[in-house]
Amino acid sequence: MRQLRGQILTPAGWIHGDIQFDDRIRAIKERAASVDGPRIIPGFIDLHVHGGAGRDVMQGGDAARSVAAFHARFGTTALLATTMTDSPSRVEAALTGIAAAMAAHQPGSARVLGAHLEGPFISSTRLGAQPPGVLPATLQKVQRFAAIAPIRVLTLAPEVADHLDLIPELVAQGIRVQVGHSSASYETTLAALQQGASGFTHLFNGMTGMSHRDPGVAAAAMAHGEYAELIPDLEHVHPGTIRQALRAIPKLYFITDATAAAGMPDGDYTLGTQAVVKCQGCVRLKDGSSLAGSSLTMDQALRNLLTLGMDLADVSARLSRYPAEYLGIAHERGQLRAGSLADLVVLDEHAQVTDVYLEGVRCPAPAVLAGTLP
Ligand SMILES: [Zn+2]
Q1: Number of folded domains in the chain?
Q2: Quick check: is 257 catalytic?
Q3: Which CATH number is 296's domain given?
Q4: DSSP class of residue 321?
Q5: Domain range holding 213?
């Protein structure tokens, strides 16, 4: 049994005391309020990750495994490996790698909870950094993918023919359907929510917007959404617009949309079949036409959100608790309470990660690896 002392974020608020755990949290014991020490918060749950440390989930093989090991160092204790638009056989190869990472979990690595299928069932008019090659979705195609690895989240453009009718069938398979990479109108988006869609993919990016006479997907999300994911690198979405979304969407949660360029120096990388360039923290398509995912890690996401004046407990909920609730795993992840898996992040006074525990196993923190990572 391990024990850490500090200021522990629990569902009831901050407790000054000790947290005792093996693979699960066994007890949280309050001590005198004078106990100081580090902040201990739940491990981050990132529901949209393409890559990191030079590897991309679409490479298949052991790529998903490497990506999960990389992001663990920055406090991500569970994630959804996210695929790009590509030919069905290449998506299947990526899913095979995701299934392998799930089957052979390495201690001290982020738990791969399944796949987020970002393409190919999106709109050719809102590709963003996705390559051409979109396909209309059918239950049969999705089931073929799901037979390889569990599809937990699927990004869908609801305005594509037959997609609205398909949503209830996807939801019945246990898939969270998110509106994204979409030119849908407000009305079509509302119809998608009524059919069972429950989220929005990188809110504001790759979708129709907020025009007051012609509202689109983002406006429908603000008017009706309970959950939505957003990239808080402060490049994809202006801080003022993040504040607006925080007022409107109760369980807005944050993702990295990280690519292979995360944790790597400036230079050339791939995102699926797309050539991308990392320059000064941003990742763009090689022709410069579009942002192409990010080089964000969840610890940097946390510090970015603190610069907006957000409270640490609120930031933590949006990096851990709400994504766990959205995925239906809040009974064992996303909050620090007795019985939950011991997924912990330890922060110093500058909100830098000093230690990460994944199901009780300590993982080397970025500070330890400072010599090897830029
Ligand atoms: Zn993405």
Answers
A1: 1
A2: yes
A3: 3.20.20.140
A4: I
A5: 43-329
